[in-house]
Amino acid sequence: MLFRKALRYSIPVLLGYLAIGSAFGFLLADEGYPWWLALVMGTIMYAGAGQYIAVGLFAAGTTLWEAVLVQLMVNARHIAYGLSMMNRFRSTGRLRWYLIFGMSDETFALLSSMPENAAVIKPEDITERSRFMFLVTLLNHGYWVFGGVLGAVIGSLIPFNTGGISYALTAMFIVLMIEQILRLRTPWIFIVSAVPAVLCTLFFPMRISLLGAMALALAFSSFLPKKEKLQEKQGTSNEPKVQSSQELP
Fold first, then answer.
1. Which of 73, 136, 220, 238 is deepest in the core (most CB within 10 A)?
2. In the prediction, which pLDDT does 38 show?
3. Closest Cα partner for 108 from 86, 126, 128?
4. What is the spatial distance between Cα 83 and Cα 69, in angstroms, rounded to a whole number?
5. Which of 31-45, 54-68, 149-163, 182-196 has the highest mean pLDDT?
6. What secondary structure does DSSP assign to 114-144, as a single string?
7. pLDDT tens across 171-227, in order?
8. Which range of residues forms the domain containing residue 206?
9. Are 181 and 191 contained in the same domain?
């Protein structure tokens, strides 16, 4: 029952990971690497954008320290993910270590916006909630590994032009953003994050544009009303107005 709930909840990531995971496998095979490298990278590295970049770094013959620096800059956003998930992971026990390892962008999007009601999981059942987050993370990890291996195997057997296929990762992020906007019904956080991203892309050097956009987005978002205040405000606005005794006929 819990597994089926986690599977149903992670379906959007399944559809996306099969596409962008396969795209990664195609790129890997196109550079002449064996299919099993997709399995190793997906299982141990498990970094979508980082794996795409790693293929280019391998092909360019980049030094180890340059590759480490690039990966650190690209994946620095996970620091913000970890800080924002501290409260949710506090009571997960030993599962916490895998939850931290498996915190991809898409998994963060699902777990951070998990509804606080019994529609998905009972909020008061801490053990079941921890197991649910673990299953969602494990399923997403499996989707990514399977997609990467599938793409690498097909790419090895049927070579074809992979031009433009790396855009699949960007498309995945756009779809997830739209889904979260529709689910949370609070688009301001996404707007506040998008504006610095556009500005930094236009005016900052490429090597620091990502870090600059993240810093500005975090700074701007700190001025937005908190989730509890928004829910309280929405609840107040939805309460039926009660007529006073003077207004009653």
1. 136
2. 95
3. 86
4. 21
5. 31-45
6. --SSTTTS-TT-HHHHHHHHHHHHHHHHHHH
7. 766 776 777 677 667 777 778 878 888 888 888 887 677 667 777 877 877 777 665
8. 186-235
9. no
Is 247 inside a domain boundary? no
3-state SS, residue 35: coil
Token pair recorded at residue 151: 């793409």
Backbone angles phi, psi at 8, to 5 degrees: -65, -40
Kindly state whether residues 116 and 213 are assigned to the same domain: no
Asked if 195 and 88 sit in the same domain, the reply is: no
Instruction: Tell me the whole-structure pTM to 2 decimals.
Output: 0.69
Q: What rounded mean pLDDT belongs to the chain?
A: 79
Do 194 and 118 sit in the same domain of this protein? no
Domain count for the chain, please give it.
2
In 10 A of CB 210, how many CB atoms? Answer: 19
Burial label, 42 (beta-carbon count in 10 A; 0-12, 13-18, 19+): buried
Q: Are residues 150 and 210 both part of a single domain?
A: no
Residue that has been written with the tokens 């360019």 in this structure: 60
Q: Give strand ranges (E) for the chain.
A: none
Return the closest-CA partner of residue 107 out of 99, 115, 96.
99
Kindly state whether residue 246 falls inside one of the protein's structural domains.
no
Pairwise CA distance, residues 180 & 186, whole Å: 9
Query: Do 32 and 140 sit in the same domain of this protein?
Result: yes
Contact 123, 117 (CB under 8 A): yes
- Do both 78 and 160 map to the same domain? yes
* 121 inside domain: yes
